[in-house]
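lol forgot to send this yesterday, sorry. struct tokens for the thing we talked abt
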């Protein structure tokens, strides 16, 4: 369970920065200067750039030093984190794990007491705010802002906040991508879409740390493309400074969405607007230039923003105007992330009780398995005029588009939650993925026959996991059946705090399910070795004890 044993070594700053760990030359020097040329694909005109001046706030981050023409290298990142931790009694730094190419994934924890033990940090009872940068390696402003935030929490304007909130900062979640200035991890996968399947060491590292320090609020910092396909489709540039979106999957608890939208978001927007920074809902558009639909950030349950929301955190994506424009207006982009994160920390500090109440309601709902499982849905599309900019003159160019709204369902396929799922062939990868999302697994006590609902595959579709709203990979038929299963068969209760993720991972026709992704093999005869147990009425507790052995 989430509050279980310490999964990640939290190490005090001086020891982790010992020379044996950080031997000079142990890491290849980064090639950011060259990469800047390669990735500065779009040159904005002076008239456009004039709309994006620096924000008049002081930010302590290596990539913003005067005269810089490159982003912060891995070596500089390590040095900066070591310096922040060494110079402050509030900050503890550690390593959450390693990337595919062996780079360390650093984190910092800020508490007034400078605590390192997760149990002691949790016992403070303060809201735990997670701030994540650089899941995508070519989106540097968020990562840079995380360093400025760490410095401000350590000894700057945010230090006093550490008495009221705990900040967990992961400045560079995808260090290989950052070193190569590429979106994906070294094997070409998108870590932002991997939070349900957890196939990547980078995602697993984050979730191991989350297991010991469960987030109550997450801010996931990204950047969006300014020109490129927006020019091709609309002959217009992205204009807005900050695009924001909370978790939108339809199974996210309404209490969390309400708190995100009515308490946190207005304060984030007010803080940004006070500095002349514009905001809008996060939206994007497919890479295919023939498809001009503009979509709000999608509802894939494995996209970080949604996974965190389904696991009971107030969860925001924030994106700045930054991909494909090199270091253009970099200070402004970093300042935007910094100001938004500061507003989140301040709001969490001021609204701790409301936050706790919404999270408790969300957890109770999951534990009672009271929501219908939304296995598929279609989104409504409506006309919207986006605030874009003329690429030459820089003037406002309001641009009408067809807009797919992730919060407006045109249709939905739902089914009631079972008491749980019997999974006789669940492999080690699938078990690890579930456990890392806080899922409790049980096993059957003895060989037995069970009356279940079984799934048979009716249709298979090739699904692009990168799609904004991936469709179902499998369509299934349910049939009542009696199955004989050996002792020790895995039973995953649906009614548990991580129950929403259980359902979305194990219902085979949910987008991004384990069976859809191939982590549960479809057998001959199109049967899937996953069974819904105790459909109605649900298993009584005594019956459940009889059937299964839960816990360690
Ligand atoms: Zn991104």
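and heres what i got for the seq, position by position
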């Amino acid at each position: 369970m989430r509050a279980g044993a310490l999964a990640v070594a939290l190490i005090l700053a001086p020891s982790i920065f010992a020379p044996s760990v950080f031997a000079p030359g142990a890491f290849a020097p980064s090639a950011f200067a060259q990469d800047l040329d390669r990735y500065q694909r779009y040159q904005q005109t002076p008239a456009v750039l004039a709309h994006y001046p620096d924000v008049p706030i002081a930010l302590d981050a290596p990539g913003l030093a005067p005269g810089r023409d490159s982003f912060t290298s891995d070596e500089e990142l390590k040095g900066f984190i070591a310096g922040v931790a060494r110079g402050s009694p509030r900050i503890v730094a550690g390593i959450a794990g390693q990337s595919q190419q062996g780079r360390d994934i650093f984190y910092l924890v800020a508490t007034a007491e400078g605590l390192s033990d997760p149990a002691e940090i949790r016992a403070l009872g303060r809201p735990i705010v997670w701030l994540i940068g650089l899941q995508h390696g070519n989106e540097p402003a968020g990562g840079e802002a995380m360093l400025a935030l760490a410095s401000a929490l350590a000894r700057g304007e945010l230090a006093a906040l550490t008495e009221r909130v705990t900040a967990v900062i992961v400045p560079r979640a995808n260090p290989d991508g950052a070193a190569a200035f590429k979106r994906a991890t070294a094997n070409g996968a998108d870590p932002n879409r991997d939070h349900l399947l957890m196939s990547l060491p980078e995602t697993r590292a984050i979730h191991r740390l989350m297991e010991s320090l469960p987030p109550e609020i997450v801010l996931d910092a990204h950047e969006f493309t300014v020109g490129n396909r927006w020019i091709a489709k609309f002959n217009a540039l992205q204009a807005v400074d900050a695009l924001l979106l909370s978790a939108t999957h339809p199974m996210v608890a309404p209490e969390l969405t309400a708190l995100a939208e009515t308490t946190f978001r207005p304060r984030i927007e007010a803080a940004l607007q006070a500095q002349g920074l514009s905001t809008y809902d996060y939206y994007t558009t497919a890479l295919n230039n023939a498809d001009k639909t503009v979509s709000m950030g999608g509802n894939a349950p494995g996209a970080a923003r949604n996974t965190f929301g389904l696991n009971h955190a107030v969860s925001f994506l924030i994106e700045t105007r930054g991909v494909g424009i090199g270091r253009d207006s970099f200070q402004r982009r970093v300042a935007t992330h910094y100001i938004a994160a500061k507003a989140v920390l301040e709001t969490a500090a001021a609204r701790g009780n409301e936050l706790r109440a919404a999270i408790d309601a969300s957890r109770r709902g999951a534990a009672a398995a009271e929501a219908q499982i939304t296995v598929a849905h279609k989104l409504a599309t409506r006309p919207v005029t986006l605030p874009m900019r003329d690429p030459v003159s820089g003037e406002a160019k309001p641009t009408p588009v067809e807009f797919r709204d992730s919060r407006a369902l045109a249709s939905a396929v739902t089914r009631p939650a079972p008491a749980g799922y019997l999974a006789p062939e669940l492999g080690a990868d699938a078990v690890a993925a579930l456990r890392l999302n806080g899922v409790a697994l049980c096993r059957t006590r003895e060989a037995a026959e069970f009356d279940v609902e079984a799934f048979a595959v009716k249709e298979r579709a090739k699904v692009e996991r990168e799609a904004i709203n991936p469709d179902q990979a499998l369509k299934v038929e349910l049939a009542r059946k009696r199955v004989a299963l050996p002792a020790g068969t895995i039973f995953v209760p649906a009614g548990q705090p991580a129950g929403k993720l259980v359902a979305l991972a194990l219902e085979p026709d949910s987008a991004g399910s384990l069976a859809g992704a191939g982590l549960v093999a479809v057998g001959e005869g199109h049967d899937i070795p996953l069974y819904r147990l105790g459909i109605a009425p649900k298993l009584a507790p005594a019956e459940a004890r009889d059937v299964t052995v839960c816990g360690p």
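The pocket of zinc ion is lined by residues 136, 139, 222 (CB under 6 Å). anyway ping me if u want another try
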